[in-house]
Amino acid sequence: MKIKNTPENTLERLIIYLKVLEALEKKNVNFISSEDLAKSCGVNSAQLRKDLSFVGSLGTKGVGYSIKSLKYSLKNFLGRAQEWNLILGGISPLGIFLLQDKTLQKEGFYFLAAFDTKEENIGKIYNGISVYSLDQLSYVVNAIKVDIGVIATEEEPEIFLNAFVEQGVKAILNLSKVPFFVKNSEIKIENFSFSMALTKLSYFLKE
Fold first, then answer.
1. Side by side, which strands form the sheet with 188-191?
2. What percentage of the chain exceeds 90 in pLDDT?
3. Domains annotated on the chain, with CATH
4. Model confidence at 1, in pLDDT bands (50, 70, 90)?
5. Given CB 3.0 to 4.6 Å as the disulfide criterion, which of 39, 60, 62, 74 pairs with 18?
6. What pLDDT digit, counting tens, does each position of 23-52 carry?
7. pLDDT band at 143 (very low <50, low <70, confident <90, very high)
8. Residue 151: beta bridge partners?
């Protein structure tokens, strides 16, 4: 996996810019000034321009940014202009929700298979996606191109992490309650859980 040199904070803001632009496009907005776009994204215009310099997109003086053009540039830069194949680790309520959520497909993310360690879950089908035994992971990975592994299990998530890494999955979204880190710089793990996000808010609210 090629190591990217965009700062993590910049990357997070670029993703926010893309989501805001998509919302503006749905409202039939064609152009927007850097000041107005920055305000909508919670940053100042200088920060916005600095971030967009990584993308190579510059607005037109007196006109601002073309929503359609800037969205296209951001999608290409962020890898969102192509489709990605996903596999799921763990048949939990969250995992089932993700398999059945068709909005992910509209974003270009497609679950092709799911895996579990519990016998009662093997063979089930959700939204046309089959659940396999984790022991079958190597066979499935050899049969299809896997881009991203998603861990959504509530029990022993490290089993799925180790299995994914062993089979060469280099991008992993970890939705379990336990954050994971690996020394291998070729592997990117994104840790997220609702409890982690809510803890940030509880810190903000505490007296």
1. 125-126, 129-133, 109-116, 84-89, 148-151, 171-174, 188-191
2. 86
3. 8-77 (1.10.10.10), 84-198 (3.40.50.720)
4. very low
5. 74
6. 999 999 999 999 999 999 999 999 999 999
7. very high
8. 89, 174
Q: Write out the two tokens for 142.
A: 């050899």
Which tokens go with 123? 């063979």
DSSP-derived pairing of the beta strands 171-174 and 148-151 = parallel
What mean pLDDT do residues 152-169 have?
Answer: 96
Contact at 8 Å (CB) between 15 and 51?
no
Q: Which tokens belong to 50?
A: 């600095």
64-117 tens-digit pLDDT: 899 999 999 999 999 999 999 999 999 999 999 999 998 999 999 999 999 999
C-alpha 170/C-alpha 203 separation (Å) is: 33
Instruction: Report residue 170 as tokens.
Output: 């280099």
